[in-house]
């Protein structure tokens, strides 16, 4: 199962749940999650969950852990706890979780609401995720606007350039799409996603020489699995 | 008159696709068994293919079901693991004839491909499986003989192949059907590693297994086969092969091969006069636009937008979306069309296995049927029941699809085969399900749409005419396209007839057949609502 919006998820100091005070060991759990040591994080988190089962920060960290491990159903269950209601990071994680579960209409609704919330609107990844959901619905123009907004906030964000290129390609603006994909390549020069997109675009625009170079790059890499 | 005909079209187009579950009265008691016994072997996720074919040439579609085996022995320990053959009675009842046929089988069977490989007028069966494949030659008297070793389909280095799908096509256009076998991963029951946390083990992701090369067997025209996987350019591109489908994607007369891969880039083997080149990347079908491989499962390689170019449909896993690729021509170039078709949003919550692009309501636009289920033991991941209902998406023109109603039975659905079992002109479906009864689905779509089915008899071409491309020209000049193939979906095989929905038109102005041999045949003013037998000139 794919966690497409995983980049949206934050842990650690970015969180603010106010009272009650966050347990001291939760910080190390969050660090372990961030560094991908999920089994260790789970071990430390287990007693915290037992002792403080309703603590918002503990619950949220547990939900992040479930999400990171791909247990999206469990994550969603935790996120629906009343004590987490209203927090921006919870809402973002909830949207990402809904998306991972294939409940994209609900995810889109949540992100649509979030992109205009002052505390969230400055997050480029939020606009990027929202744009992807719009694109999936076939709303290329609206998606393009979301990607443009993401790039206003983070002009070097390669993912935003790449998704913008996809939106432009679907709008039939192949030459603009090439320019966006080339910007993506500058940010992420070894991305299979970017090179396969460039190959597609160069073929669409009849640029056989550049297409051949992209193909060569892709062929020289081992076939990867996701 | 032309104006009247145009006005009449919407009357036929308005019908909804509807299937009725007639399993209980069909006489099909088959239950697919995967042999799962708690050890979570990878193979238990993957069966079971089904074939709709006419083994006794009585004009009624029959059914063959593959079945699993005990694990880890890979032996059919008792009769519940036997493969099954049912003779169709043309009225949605079927009679079990496995014992007489000799098709009970051995080993862990996965897939089936039906076609008349020896051009003797009787459809034969290739059964693919785990570390064992079998070719059954139809003797023409209701019995089959295992000819695998005699004909050269059990090469020594294939004993560890895990074959998941297979299909018949005439890649070298010599009039004799060749065999493509889609292989999955290297797997050994004795070395199955545990996956998931100790308190809740799950089946391992395919990334933990090494890919296998597919195989191509050339029919030597004397009833035997040569393994040409290396010399023809197939072996050099291993994959994690699931469904396989054939079509002449670039219109050069040579059939190309598409393989849907599980969590690895898809493969498109372009046929250059009998030698293959893997071109999925440059053709734009290795990945969706996102650039990330999906868990590809079943596939169909047909023209869904009626522009004369075969397109691709592929099922995938939850949050992948099923994929549509539209063939743009331009020397083999496709564009992803999933979002524009409406299928991205409609399928993102699903995991699909087998499938088929058929015109179920005969309105002239092919529709998409998918057999669905999430993987078992993923409740914690999904937050939902992993068993799913099947789905149908109605083609409404210009490559767009809309969800339609389906029987709500939820199960771990897998293989599917399509044929007109009651000869009413509407394509029906049969779907297998892990450790559950089979779903026999009668197409009861309403409406007065007309149809036409072409049953081909090749002379210089292979006898089934597989690979023949057919264009129907309707009054007013509208054209419809299809081609002959039995390789549809996942691990399964469908009837070889080439079907068309004609909507409100009671006849086709012209039927143009391009045979694999290169012969062109034209029929004028062909009346609708019947099967037309056409022999190659």
Shape of chain A: elongated
Overall pLDDT of chain B: 94
N-C termini distance of chain A? 10 Å
Q: What is the fold-level CATH name, i.e. the topology of the domain at 1-109 in chain A?
A: Serine Threonine Protein Phosphatase 5, Tetratricopeptide repeat
The number of helices of chain A is 12
Q: Helix- and strand-based class of chain A?
A: mainly alpha
For CATH, the homologous superfamily of the domain at 1-109 in chain A is named as Tetratricopeptide repeat domain
Strand content of chain A: under 5%
- Whole-number radius of gyration of chain A? 20 Å
> How many individual β-strands of chain A?
0
Mean pLDDT reading of chain A: 87
Structural class of chain B: mainly beta
Largest sheet of chain A: none
- The CATH architecture category of the domain at 1-109 in chain A equals Alpha Horseshoe
Structure description:
- The complex is a heterodimer of chains A (226) and B (537).
- Chain A is mainly α and 226 residues long.
- Chain A has a domain at 1-109: Alpha Horseshoe (Serine Threonine Protein Phosphatase 5, Tetratricopeptide repeat), CATH 1.25.40.10.
- Chain A contains 12 helices and no strands.
- Chain A has helices spanning 26-34, 38-51, 56-68, 72-79, 88-100, 104-114, 124-136, 140-153, 158-170, 174-187, 192-204, 208-220.
- In chain A, helix 8 packs antiparallel against helix 9, helix 9 runs parallel beside helix 11 (192-204) and helix 10 (174-187) runs antiparallel to helix 11 (192-204).
- Chain A is elongated, with a radius of gyration of 20 Å.
- The termini of chain A are close together.
- With 537 residues, chain B is mainly β.
- Chain B has a 4-stranded antiparallel sheet with strand order 1-28-27-26. Chain B has a 4-stranded antiparallel sheet with strand order 2-3-4-5.
- The chains are: A mainly alpha (226), B mainly beta (537).
- Chain A binds chain B through residues 1-2, 4, 39, 70-74, 76-77, 99-105, 135-138, 162, 166, 169-170, 191-194, 196-197, 199-200, 203-204, 211, 215, 218-219, 223-226, and chain B through 197, 206-207, 211, 240, 263-265, 281-282, 284, 286-287, 289-294, 317-321, 330, 333, 335, 339-340, 342, 344-345, 348-350, 378-384.
């Amino acid at each position: 199962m794919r966690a497409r919006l995983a980049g949206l998820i934050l842990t650690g100091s970015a969180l603010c749940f106010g009272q009650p005070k966050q347990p001291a060991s939760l910080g190390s759990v969050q660090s372990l999650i961030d560094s991908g040591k999920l089994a260790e994080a789970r071990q430390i988190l287990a007693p915290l969950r037992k002792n403080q089962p309703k603590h918002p920060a503990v619950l949220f960290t547990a939900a992040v852990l479930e999400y990171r491990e791909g247990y999206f159903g469990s994550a969603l269950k935790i996120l629906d706890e009343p004590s987490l209601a209203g927090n921006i990071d919870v809402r973002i994680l909830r949207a990402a979780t809904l998306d991972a579960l294939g409940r994209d209409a609900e995810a889109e609704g949540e992100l649509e609401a979030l992109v205009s919330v002052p505390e969230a609107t400055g997050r480029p990844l939020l606009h990027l995720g929202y744009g992807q959901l719009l694109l999936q619905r076939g709303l290329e123009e609206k998606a393009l606007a979301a990607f443009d907004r993401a790039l206003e906030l983070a002009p070097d964000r390669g993912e935003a350039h790449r998704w913008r290129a996809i939106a432009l390609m679907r709008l039939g603006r192949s030459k603009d799409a090439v320019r966006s994909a080339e910007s993506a390549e500058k940010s992420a020069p070894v991305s299979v996603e970017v090179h396969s997109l460039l190959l597609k675009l160069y073929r669409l625009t009849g640029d056989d020489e550049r297409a051949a170079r992209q193909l060569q790059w892709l062929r020289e890499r081992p076939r990867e699995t996701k | 008159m032309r104006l009247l005909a145009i006005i009449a079209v919407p009357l036929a187009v308005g019908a909804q696709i509807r299937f009725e579950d007639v399993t209980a009265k069909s006489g099909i008691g088959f239950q697919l068994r995967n042999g799962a016994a708690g050890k979570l072997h990878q193979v238990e996720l993957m069966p079971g293919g089904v074939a709709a074919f006419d083994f006794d040439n009585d004009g009624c579609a029959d059914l063959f079901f593959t079945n699993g085996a005990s694990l880890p022995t890979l032996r059919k320990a008792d009769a519940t693991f036997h493969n099954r053959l049912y003779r169709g009675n043309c009225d949605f009842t079927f009679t079990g004839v496995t014992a007489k046929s000799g098709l009970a089988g051995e080993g862990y069977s996965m897939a089936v491909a039906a076609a008349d490989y020896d051009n003797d007028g009787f459809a034969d069966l290739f059964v693919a499986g785990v570390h064992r494949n079998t070719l059954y030659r139809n003797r023409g008297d209701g019995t089959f003989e295992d000819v695998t070793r005699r004909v050269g389909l059990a090469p020594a280095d294939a004993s560890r192949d895990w074959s998941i799908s297979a299909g018949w096509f005439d890649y070298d256009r010599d009039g004799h059907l060749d065999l493509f076998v889609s292989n999955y991963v290297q797997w050994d029951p004795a070395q199955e590693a545990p996956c998931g946390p100790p308190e809740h083990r799950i089946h391992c992701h395919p990334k933990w297994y090494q890919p296998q090369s597919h195989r191509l067997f050339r029919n030597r025209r004397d009833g035997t086969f040569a393994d040409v996987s290396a010399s023809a350019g197939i072996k050099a591109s291993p994959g994690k092969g699931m469904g396989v489908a054939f079509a002449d994607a670039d219109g050069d007369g040579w059939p190309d091969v598409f393989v849907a891969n599980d969590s690895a880039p898809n493969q498109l083997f372009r046929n250059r006069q009998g030698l293959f080149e893997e071109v999925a990347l440059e053709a734009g079908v290795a990945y969706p636009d996102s650039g990330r491989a999906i868990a590809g499962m079943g596939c169909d390689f047909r023209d869904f937008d009626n522009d004369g170019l075969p397109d691709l449909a592929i099922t995938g896993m939850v949050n992948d979306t099923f994929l549509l690729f539209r063939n743009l021509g331009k020397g083999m170039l496709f564009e992803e069309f999933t979002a524009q078709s409406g299928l991205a949003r409609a399928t993102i919550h699903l995991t699909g296995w087998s499938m088929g692009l058929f015109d179920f309501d005969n309105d002239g636009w092919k529709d998409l049927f998918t057999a669905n289920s999430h993987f078992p033991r993923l409740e914690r991941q999904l937050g939902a029941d992993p068993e799913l209902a099947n789905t149908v998406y109605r083609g409404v023109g210009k490559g767009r699809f809309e969800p339609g109603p389906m029987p709500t039975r939820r199960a771990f659905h897998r293989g599917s085969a399509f044929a007109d079992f009651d000869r009413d002109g509407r394509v029906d479906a049969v779907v297998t399900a892990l450790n559950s009864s089979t779903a026999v689905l009668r197409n009861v779509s309403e409406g007065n749409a007309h149809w036409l089915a072409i049953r081909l008899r090749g002379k210089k071409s292979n006898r089934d005419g597989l690979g023949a491309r057919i264009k129907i020209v309707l009054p007013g000049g509208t054209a419809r396209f299809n081609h002959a193939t039995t390789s549809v979906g996942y691990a399964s095989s469908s009837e070889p007839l080439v079907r068309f929905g004609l909507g409100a038109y009671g006849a086709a102005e012209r039927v143009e057949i391009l045979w694999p041999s290169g012969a062109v045949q034209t029929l004028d003013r062909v009346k609708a609502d019947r099967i037309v037998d056409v022999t190659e000139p």
